[in-house]
Give the backbone structure.
Amino acid sequence: MKSKLLAVPLAGIGILALTAQKSSDAPKKTGKDGRKNILMFFMDDLGYKDTGFTGSDFYETPTIDSLARNSLVFNISYSGGANSAPSRACLISGTYSPRTEVYAVFNTTRGPKDEMLLRAIPNNDTLPKRIYTIADAMAGAGYNTAIIGKWHLGEKPGYTPDKRGFIFDNSSPTQSNAQFKATNDPKAIFEETSQTLDVINKSVKEGKPFFVYMAFHAVHQQWRAQQKYIDYFKAKTPGKQHNEVVYAAMIKHADDAIKEVVGRLRQLGIDKNTVIVFTSDNGGIPSTSQAPLRGFKGTFYEGGIRVPTFINYPGGVVGSCNVPIINVDYYPTFVEIAGAKLPKEKILDGESLLPIVLGKAKTLNRESIFWHFPGYLDRTCPGARDTVFRQRPATMIRKGDWKLILFHEEWVLKGGRANIDKNHAVELYNEKEDISEKRDLSNVNKAKRDELLDDLLKWMKDTGAKTAVKFNDSNRFTQKEIAASKQKQKDEDE
């Protein structure tokens, strides 16, 4: 049963610039034991360049920018997947995609099936019940746990948020055109804000710490905004990089919502006892430039997976950090903040960011981060490798300044490692020197290529990550399936 509260600059690796945040005001303790609240603003499709603090010359995010100035900004922050569901599965589970097998939205065979050279690995469209979620952990530690907005990890009985550790389940489906016309509430932002405030108020009244996951439906297509903001941005001089009026207006609505929520923390006297995390589920879409990043949502080039991120920790570090992080890191970070205990069998692939946030460390212990997508994603985009698909099956590693992409089709069908100098199975980029990923160095720096490939193949073995497989008589597509795959795709950018 749902428990609802109803209510109407880019840099390379190696530098950690920071200052200590000072405050003489003693924080009000929300919970009886004084543990910090955690408030996560999780945007939908907000690209790395789509905020003021990351360089937009048209979109306005004054509240977000103000928070960023008083936070630790992670310049090299990644989503766990290149689109919604897999990224959210990584966040909620604290593990990489092979452990949940949530690889895609809908399925891993999106696009013309006769153009697919391998049989994709099947997709989980729900987060498996065996996963002990971040909400399970936080609720187990005595926190009020709440989701507001987009869930996207299963609507079947037993898979909804109220069965996955969220005490207050205010998750909601995508807003319809009719709902927007009836309410004039773009992407249900006003309703989501009211629900968030209700959870915070209730938690303070109960004297319990809270973990609130405010998962906006904004700024996903379809774009919606009130006319007053549309008129405002129509009258504004377009930027050289950005000029999308309705998109700008929708971002402004989200910024207003964050302003209202943060204002309530201050009114209640709990702002100095609340950790605020701001990030997005994946990169931006082609309608809004992410230059100099290559690609967009759905690709595993930087434009598809690099996201704007900061952590505002009262008394913590203020500045910017160039240590690469990924959204599986939030689970262990929140667990450490809460002092939560996990089942012995629980696997976490991330690493707590708390030592960096508190200024006790300048880097993390791990060497590398990974992504895995053994499927096909339809509708190519600028910057994609392919003219048909946004993404073909691939597995990725980032280690230090270096990023390697292993493409399954060439690996499986064109000789694998034995023919690696000729088969175009890998691409290698130095992200510090070439953030636009224009120069493939796989045949220039073979020693680095082989080092990262060794690490990647070992990780795939350790996590059970499967490559897409050759077709055979038992797994070939039927002519009916091939014909259906060429029909018009869903009118939604997922």
